[in-house]
Amino acid sequence: MSDPITPFKLERYFAMYEFNTRYLLSPSDCESIPLHALLAMADGECQILWDELNLGYTESQGHPLLRSEIAKLYQSVSTDEVIVLVPEEGILIAFQTLLKPGDHVVAIFPAYQSLHEIARSIGCRVTPWRVQLRDGRWFLDIEELEKSITPQTRLLVINFPHNPTGFHPTLAEWQRVVDLARAYNLYVFSDEMYRYLEYSEDARLPSLVDVYPKAIVLGGLSKAFALPGLRIGWLVTHDRQVYQDWAIYKDYTTICNSAPSEILGLIALRARERIVKRNLQIVQNNLTAAAQFFDEFKTMFEWIPPVAGSVAFPRLALEMPVEEFCRQMLEKAQVMIVPDSMFDYSGNHFRVGLGRKNFAEALGALTKVLGSR
Question: CA-to-CA distance for 279 and 222, rounded, in angstroms?
Protein backbone atom coordinates (compact mmCIF):
# COMPACT_ATOMS: atom_id res chain seq x y z
CA MET A 1 0.00 0.00 0.00
CA SER A 2 1.31 3.44 -0.86
CA ASP A 3 1.71 6.14 1.80
CA PRO A 4 0.82 9.83 1.63
CA ILE A 5 3.65 11.85 0.20
CA THR A 6 5.29 14.18 2.69
CA PRO A 7 5.83 17.90 2.11
CA PHE A 8 8.90 18.72 0.03
CA LYS A 9 10.92 20.58 2.67
CA LEU A 10 13.40 22.27 0.36
CA GLU A 11 10.76 23.46 -2.09
CA ARG A 12 8.52 24.74 0.69
CA TYR A 13 11.51 26.63 2.14
CA PHE A 14 12.25 28.27 -1.21
CA ALA A 15 8.57 29.08 -1.64
CA MET A 16 8.70 31.04 1.63
CA TYR A 17 11.84 33.05 0.96
CA GLU A 18 13.09 32.88 -2.64
CA PHE A 19 11.15 35.83 -4.02
CA ASN A 20 11.13 38.14 -1.03
CA THR A 21 14.73 37.98 0.20
CA ARG A 22 17.52 40.21 -1.12
CA TYR A 23 20.23 37.55 -1.39
CA LEU A 24 20.02 33.82 -2.02
CA LEU A 25 23.17 32.04 -0.87
CA SER A 26 21.90 28.50 -1.48
CA PRO A 27 20.40 28.03 -4.98
CA SER A 28 21.79 25.09 -6.91
CA ASP A 29 21.35 26.48 -10.42
CA CYS A 30 23.64 28.81 -12.33
CA GLU A 31 22.91 32.44 -13.19
CA SER A 32 19.88 32.34 -15.49
CA ILE A 33 20.38 33.37 -19.10
CA PRO A 34 18.14 36.25 -20.30
CA LEU A 35 15.87 35.48 -23.23
CA HIS A 36 17.53 38.02 -25.52
CA ALA A 37 20.95 36.52 -24.82
CA LEU A 38 19.74 33.00 -25.55
CA LEU A 39 18.04 34.04 -28.79
CA ALA A 40 21.27 35.70 -29.89
CA MET A 41 22.84 32.22 -29.82
CA ALA A 42 20.30 30.75 -32.29
CA ASP A 43 21.58 29.28 -35.53
CA GLY A 44 19.66 29.88 -38.75
CA GLU A 45 17.41 26.84 -38.42
CA CYS A 46 16.51 27.64 -34.81
CA GLN A 47 15.80 31.26 -35.66
CA ILE A 48 13.27 30.19 -38.28
CA LEU A 49 11.69 27.71 -35.88
CA TRP A 50 11.35 30.50 -33.29
CA ASP A 51 10.02 33.12 -35.70
CA GLU A 52 7.44 30.75 -37.19
CA LEU A 53 6.52 28.97 -33.96
CA ASN A 54 2.91 27.85 -33.72
CA LEU A 55 1.69 27.78 -30.13
CA GLY A 56 -0.17 24.51 -30.41
CA TYR A 57 0.30 21.10 -28.86
CA THR A 58 3.69 19.46 -29.31
CA GLU A 59 4.76 15.84 -29.78
CA SER A 60 4.36 14.09 -26.44
CA GLN A 61 7.86 12.58 -26.44
CA GLY A 62 9.39 15.95 -27.36
CA HIS A 63 10.33 17.79 -30.54
CA PRO A 64 12.35 15.43 -32.78
CA LEU A 65 15.12 17.98 -33.27
CA LEU A 66 15.36 18.55 -29.52
CA ARG A 67 15.49 14.81 -28.81
CA SER A 68 18.14 14.42 -31.49
CA GLU A 69 20.26 17.15 -29.90
CA ILE A 70 19.85 15.55 -26.45
CA ALA A 71 20.93 12.18 -27.87
CA LYS A 72 24.20 13.80 -28.98
CA LEU A 73 25.10 14.29 -25.31
CA TYR A 74 25.57 10.53 -25.05
CA GLN A 75 27.67 7.96 -26.91
CA SER A 76 25.04 5.26 -27.35
CA VAL A 77 21.62 6.95 -27.24
CA SER A 78 19.30 7.30 -30.23
CA THR A 79 16.59 9.91 -30.65
CA ASP A 80 13.83 7.39 -29.92
CA GLU A 81 15.41 6.58 -26.53
CA VAL A 82 14.88 10.15 -25.27
CA ILE A 83 11.68 11.49 -23.73
CA VAL A 84 11.44 15.21 -22.95
CA LEU A 85 9.63 16.33 -19.79
CA VAL A 86 10.00 18.51 -16.72
CA PRO A 87 12.96 17.30 -14.62
CA GLU A 88 10.89 16.78 -11.46
CA GLU A 89 8.25 15.03 -13.56
CA GLY A 90 10.97 12.70 -14.83
CA ILE A 91 11.75 11.50 -11.31
CA LEU A 92 8.06 10.95 -10.59
CA ILE A 93 7.37 9.08 -13.82
CA ALA A 94 10.49 6.92 -13.62
CA PHE A 95 9.77 5.80 -10.06
CA GLN A 96 6.02 5.37 -10.49
CA THR A 97 6.47 3.15 -13.55
CA LEU A 98 9.39 1.08 -12.26
CA LEU A 99 8.54 0.47 -8.60
CA LYS A 100 5.78 -1.26 -6.71
CA PRO A 101 4.97 -1.59 -3.00
CA GLY A 102 7.40 -3.93 -1.28
CA ASP A 103 10.35 -3.20 -3.55
CA HIS A 104 13.62 -2.21 -1.94
CA VAL A 105 15.50 0.91 -3.04
CA VAL A 106 18.98 2.08 -2.09
CA ALA A 107 19.29 5.84 -2.53
CA ILE A 108 22.17 8.24 -2.10
CA PHE A 109 21.69 10.48 0.94
CA PRO A 110 21.38 13.38 1.60
CA ALA A 111 19.69 14.16 -1.67
CA TYR A 112 17.00 16.08 -3.46
CA GLN A 113 13.95 14.80 -1.61
CA SER A 114 12.20 13.32 -4.65
CA LEU A 115 15.03 10.84 -5.09
CA HIS A 116 13.93 8.91 -2.01
CA GLU A 117 10.52 10.24 -0.96
CA ILE A 118 8.62 9.14 -4.08
CA ALA A 119 9.83 5.56 -3.61
CA ARG A 120 8.83 5.66 0.06
CA SER A 121 5.38 7.00 -0.80
CA ILE A 122 4.87 4.15 -3.27
CA GLY A 123 5.40 1.69 -0.42
CA CYS A 124 9.02 0.78 -1.04
CA ARG A 125 11.58 0.23 1.69
CA VAL A 126 14.32 2.81 1.17
CA THR A 127 17.84 2.39 2.54
CA PRO A 128 20.01 5.51 2.51
CA TRP A 129 23.52 5.25 1.10
CA ARG A 130 25.14 8.04 3.05
CA VAL A 131 27.72 10.49 1.81
CA GLN A 132 30.04 10.72 4.80
CA LEU A 133 32.49 13.34 6.00
CA ARG A 134 35.96 12.09 6.89
CA ASP A 135 39.21 14.00 7.20
CA GLY A 136 37.70 17.14 5.74
CA ARG A 137 36.27 15.56 2.60
CA TRP A 138 33.09 13.85 1.49
CA PHE A 139 33.18 10.22 0.42
CA LEU A 140 30.94 7.20 -0.23
CA ASP A 141 31.60 3.79 1.30
CA ILE A 142 31.00 1.31 -1.51
CA GLU A 143 31.21 -1.65 0.86
CA GLU A 144 28.26 -0.12 2.73
CA LEU A 145 26.36 -0.02 -0.56
CA GLU A 146 26.93 -3.72 -1.16
CA LYS A 147 25.81 -4.59 2.37
CA SER A 148 22.58 -2.66 1.76
CA ILE A 149 21.57 -4.71 -1.29
CA THR A 150 18.99 -7.45 -0.65
CA PRO A 151 17.13 -9.93 -2.88
CA GLN A 152 14.28 -7.39 -2.96
CA THR A 153 16.46 -4.51 -4.14
CA ARG A 154 15.17 -3.29 -7.48
CA LEU A 155 16.65 0.19 -7.81
CA LEU A 156 19.80 2.08 -6.91
CA VAL A 157 19.56 5.88 -7.01
CA ILE A 158 22.72 7.94 -7.56
CA ASN A 159 23.49 11.61 -8.22
CA PHE A 160 26.89 12.81 -9.44
CA PRO A 161 28.06 15.56 -9.16
CA HIS A 162 26.24 15.35 -5.87
CA ASN A 163 23.72 17.80 -4.46
CA PRO A 164 24.11 19.09 -1.74
CA THR A 165 27.73 18.16 -0.87
CA GLY A 166 29.62 18.72 -4.11
CA PHE A 167 31.02 15.18 -3.86
CA HIS A 168 32.10 13.47 -7.07
CA PRO A 169 33.61 9.97 -7.27
CA THR A 170 36.73 9.05 -9.16
CA LEU A 171 36.30 6.95 -12.28
CA ALA A 172 37.56 3.90 -10.37
CA GLU A 173 35.07 4.45 -7.53
CA TRP A 174 32.23 4.98 -9.99
CA GLN A 175 33.18 1.82 -11.89
CA ARG A 176 32.89 -0.19 -8.67
CA VAL A 177 29.33 1.10 -8.29
CA VAL A 178 28.52 0.09 -11.86
CA ASP A 179 30.04 -3.35 -11.30
CA LEU A 180 27.92 -3.84 -8.19
CA ALA A 181 24.75 -2.86 -10.03
CA ARG A 182 25.60 -5.32 -12.80
CA ALA A 183 26.39 -8.12 -10.34
CA TYR A 184 23.00 -7.73 -8.64
CA ASN A 185 21.09 -6.92 -11.86
CA LEU A 186 19.74 -3.64 -10.50
CA TYR A 187 18.10 -0.79 -12.30
CA VAL A 188 20.06 2.38 -11.61
CA PHE A 189 18.50 5.83 -11.68
CA SER A 190 21.32 8.28 -12.35
CA ASP A 191 20.48 11.92 -11.67
CA GLU A 192 22.94 13.73 -13.94
CA MET A 193 21.44 17.22 -13.66
CA TYR A 194 24.82 18.66 -12.62
CA ARG A 195 26.86 16.89 -15.27
CA TYR A 196 29.10 19.31 -17.23
CA LEU A 197 29.80 21.28 -14.05
CA GLU A 198 32.93 19.27 -13.29
CA TYR A 199 35.89 21.57 -12.66
CA SER A 200 37.96 19.75 -15.29
CA GLU A 201 36.91 17.61 -18.24
CA ASP A 202 39.15 14.83 -16.94
CA ALA A 203 36.88 14.53 -13.88
CA ARG A 204 33.74 14.06 -15.97
CA LEU A 205 32.33 10.55 -15.70
CA PRO A 206 30.74 8.77 -18.64
CA SER A 207 26.98 8.94 -18.56
CA LEU A 208 25.67 5.77 -16.96
CA VAL A 209 23.46 5.05 -19.96
CA ASP A 210 26.60 4.62 -22.09
CA VAL A 211 28.04 1.83 -19.95
CA TYR A 212 25.13 0.06 -18.24
CA PRO A 213 22.08 -1.45 -19.99
CA LYS A 214 19.68 -1.01 -17.05
CA ALA A 215 20.48 2.66 -16.58
CA ILE A 216 17.81 5.34 -16.37
CA VAL A 217 19.39 8.77 -16.74
CA LEU A 218 17.87 12.12 -15.84
CA GLY A 219 19.21 15.27 -17.48
CA GLY A 220 17.95 18.80 -17.96
CA LEU A 221 18.60 22.45 -18.63
CA SER A 222 18.03 23.79 -15.10
CA LYS A 223 21.52 23.49 -13.59
CA ALA A 224 24.55 23.26 -15.89
CA PHE A 225 22.68 25.09 -18.68
CA ALA A 226 21.28 27.90 -16.48
CA LEU A 227 17.74 27.73 -17.88
CA PRO A 228 15.45 26.51 -15.07
CA GLY A 229 12.59 28.67 -16.33
CA LEU A 230 12.25 26.58 -19.48
CA ARG A 231 11.26 23.53 -17.38
CA ILE A 232 12.95 21.24 -19.90
CA GLY A 233 14.50 17.96 -18.84
CA TRP A 234 14.70 14.43 -20.18
CA LEU A 235 14.94 10.76 -19.38
CA VAL A 236 16.96 8.32 -21.46
CA THR A 237 17.08 4.53 -21.42
CA HIS A 238 17.90 1.63 -23.70
CA ASP A 239 15.01 -0.41 -22.22
CA ARG A 240 12.13 -0.19 -24.70
CA GLN A 241 9.48 -1.41 -22.24
CA VAL A 242 10.57 1.12 -19.62
CA TYR A 243 10.40 3.85 -22.25
CA GLN A 244 6.89 2.85 -23.32
CA ASP A 245 5.78 2.89 -19.68
CA TRP A 246 7.04 6.47 -19.39
CA ALA A 247 5.18 7.57 -22.50
CA ILE A 248 1.92 6.07 -21.22
CA TYR A 249 2.29 7.67 -17.79
CA LYS A 250 3.17 11.08 -19.24
CA ASP A 251 -0.29 11.20 -20.82
CA TYR A 252 -1.57 11.64 -17.25
CA THR A 253 0.89 14.39 -16.26
CA THR A 254 1.94 17.12 -18.71
CA ILE A 255 0.95 15.22 -21.90
CA CYS A 256 3.40 17.34 -23.91
CA ASN A 257 5.92 20.11 -23.42
CA SER A 258 5.83 23.89 -23.88
CA ALA A 259 6.39 24.72 -27.55
CA PRO A 260 8.50 27.86 -26.88
CA SER A 261 10.56 26.05 -24.25
CA GLU A 262 11.41 23.24 -26.65
CA ILE A 263 12.79 25.60 -29.31
CA LEU A 264 14.67 27.63 -26.72
CA GLY A 265 16.04 24.38 -25.31
CA LEU A 266 17.21 23.38 -28.77
CA ILE A 267 19.03 26.70 -29.12
CA ALA A 268 20.73 26.16 -25.76
CA LEU A 269 21.90 22.64 -26.53
CA ARG A 270 23.36 23.71 -29.84
CA ALA A 271 25.24 26.46 -27.98
CA ARG A 272 26.09 24.20 -25.04
CA GLU A 273 29.86 24.64 -25.06
CA ARG A 274 29.51 28.41 -24.81
CA ILE A 275 26.89 28.18 -22.05
CA VAL A 276 28.76 25.63 -19.95
CA LYS A 277 32.02 27.60 -20.25
CA ARG A 278 30.23 30.72 -19.01
CA ASN A 279 28.69 28.88 -16.06
CA LEU A 280 31.91 27.16 -15.03
CA GLN A 281 33.64 30.53 -14.97
CA ILE A 282 31.01 31.85 -12.56
CA VAL A 283 31.42 28.79 -10.33
CA GLN A 284 35.22 29.05 -10.34
CA ASN A 285 35.06 32.75 -9.40
CA ASN A 286 32.70 31.95 -6.56
CA LEU A 287 34.87 29.07 -5.33
CA THR A 288 37.67 31.61 -4.89
CA ALA A 289 35.35 34.00 -3.04
CA ALA A 290 34.05 31.17 -0.84
CA ALA A 291 37.56 30.02 0.11
CA GLN A 292 38.47 33.57 1.15
CA PHE A 293 35.27 34.05 3.15
CA PHE A 294 35.50 30.76 5.03
CA ASP A 295 39.18 31.32 5.74
CA GLU A 296 38.34 34.71 7.25
CA PHE A 297 35.70 33.10 9.47
CA LYS A 298 37.39 29.74 10.03
CA THR A 299 36.52 29.72 13.73
CA MET A 300 32.83 29.87 12.81
CA PHE A 301 32.70 27.47 9.87
CA GLU A 302 34.27 24.33 8.48
CA TRP A 303 34.68 24.80 4.73
CA ILE A 304 34.55 21.51 2.80
CA PRO A 305 35.54 22.33 -0.77
CA PRO A 306 33.32 20.67 -3.38
CA VAL A 307 34.93 18.45 -6.00
CA ALA A 308 32.40 19.22 -8.75
CA GLY A 309 29.09 20.92 -9.34
CA SER A 310 27.50 24.19 -8.28
CA VAL A 311 26.90 23.52 -4.57
CA ALA A 312 28.85 22.92 -1.37
CA PHE A 313 27.85 21.80 2.12
CA PRO A 314 29.98 23.57 4.77
CA ARG A 315 29.40 23.15 8.50
CA LEU A 316 28.56 25.75 11.12
CA ALA A 317 31.14 25.29 13.93
CA LEU A 318 29.40 27.53 16.47
CA GLU A 319 27.48 26.26 19.50
CA MET A 320 24.26 27.16 17.73
CA PRO A 321 21.79 25.07 15.72
CA VAL A 322 22.25 25.82 12.04
CA GLU A 323 18.53 26.52 11.68
CA GLU A 324 18.88 29.39 14.18
CA PHE A 325 21.93 30.71 12.34
CA CYS A 326 20.01 30.69 9.05
CA ARG A 327 17.09 32.47 10.71
CA GLN A 328 19.39 35.17 12.07
CA MET A 329 21.12 35.72 8.72
CA LEU A 330 17.75 36.01 7.03
CA GLU A 331 16.67 38.63 9.55
CA LYS A 332 19.91 40.60 9.96
CA ALA A 333 21.55 40.30 6.52
CA GLN A 334 18.62 39.56 4.21
CA VAL A 335 20.46 36.41 3.08
CA MET A 336 18.57 33.16 2.60
CA ILE A 337 20.61 30.08 3.56
CA VAL A 338 19.30 26.52 3.38
CA PRO A 339 20.00 24.49 6.56
CA ASP A 340 20.75 20.77 6.37
CA SER A 341 17.39 19.89 7.91
CA MET A 342 15.83 20.68 4.52
CA PHE A 343 17.61 17.50 3.39
CA ASP A 344 16.65 15.54 6.53
CA TYR A 345 20.32 15.70 7.50
CA SER A 346 21.67 16.54 10.95
CA GLY A 347 25.22 17.75 11.18
CA ASN A 348 24.90 21.53 11.42
CA HIS A 349 25.63 21.90 7.70
CA PHE A 350 24.11 24.33 5.22
CA ARG A 351 24.07 24.46 1.44
CA VAL A 352 25.99 27.07 -0.51
CA GLY A 353 25.14 27.71 -4.15
CA LEU A 354 28.10 28.68 -6.31
CA GLY A 355 26.36 29.51 -9.57
CA ARG A 356 25.01 33.04 -9.12
CA LYS A 357 26.83 36.25 -10.10
CA ASN A 358 25.95 38.07 -6.87
CA PHE A 359 27.49 35.36 -4.67
CA ALA A 360 30.35 37.58 -3.47
CA GLU A 361 27.87 40.37 -2.72
CA ALA A 362 25.82 37.97 -0.59
CA LEU A 363 28.97 36.95 1.28
CA GLY A 364 29.66 40.65 1.81
CA ALA A 365 26.27 41.06 3.47
CA LEU A 366 27.10 38.15 5.78
CA THR A 367 30.53 39.62 6.53
CA LYS A 368 28.97 42.86 7.79
CA VAL A 369 26.86 40.91 10.28
CA LEU A 370 29.41 38.28 11.29
CA GLY A 371 32.19 40.84 11.65
CA SER A 372 30.22 42.64 14.34
CA ARG A 373 29.57 39.56 16.46
Answer: 12
Identify whether the C-beta of residue 13 lies closer than 8 Å to the C-beta of residue 338.
yes
b/e for 148-167, b at 16 or more Cβ within 10 A? Answer: bbeeebbbbbbbbbbbbbbb
CATH topology assigned to domain 9-34+273-370 = Aspartate Aminotransferase, domain 1 (3.90.1150)
CB 232 within 8 A of CB 221: yes
* Helix, coil or strand: residue 105: strand
**Sequence spans of domains, the chain:** 9-34+273-370, 46-271
d(CA 238, CA 64): 17
In single-letter form, the type of residue at position 146 comes to E
Determine the Cα–Cα distance for residues 4 and 8; give it in Å rounded to an integer. 12
Top CATH class of 46-271 equals: alpha beta
137 within 8 A of 304, measured Cβ to Cβ: yes
Q: Do domains 9-34+273-370 and 46-271 have the same CATH topology?
A: no
The pLDDT averaged over each successive group of 10 residues in the chain (373 residues) is: 83 96 98 98 98 98 98 98 98 98 98 98 98 95 98 98 98 98 98 98 97 98 98 98 98 98 98 98 98 97 98 97 98 98 97 98 97 68
Q: Specify the 3-state DSSP secondary structure of 316.
A: strand
Q: What is the pLDDT of residues 252-304, one digit of tens each?
A: 999 999 999 999 999 999 999 999 999 999 999 999 999 999 999 999 999 99
| Amino acid (one-letter) located at 152 | Q
Instruction: Count the helix, strand and coil residues of the chain and give each as a percent rounded to the nearest 5.
Output: 45, 15, 40
Q: What residues contact 176, with CB distance under 8 A and at least 6 apart?
A: 142
Measured between alpha carbons, how far is 231 from 220 in angstroms, rounded to an integer?
Answer: 8
- 258's CB contacts (< 8 A; 6+ apart) are 58, 230, 231, 232
pLDDT of residue 372: 62
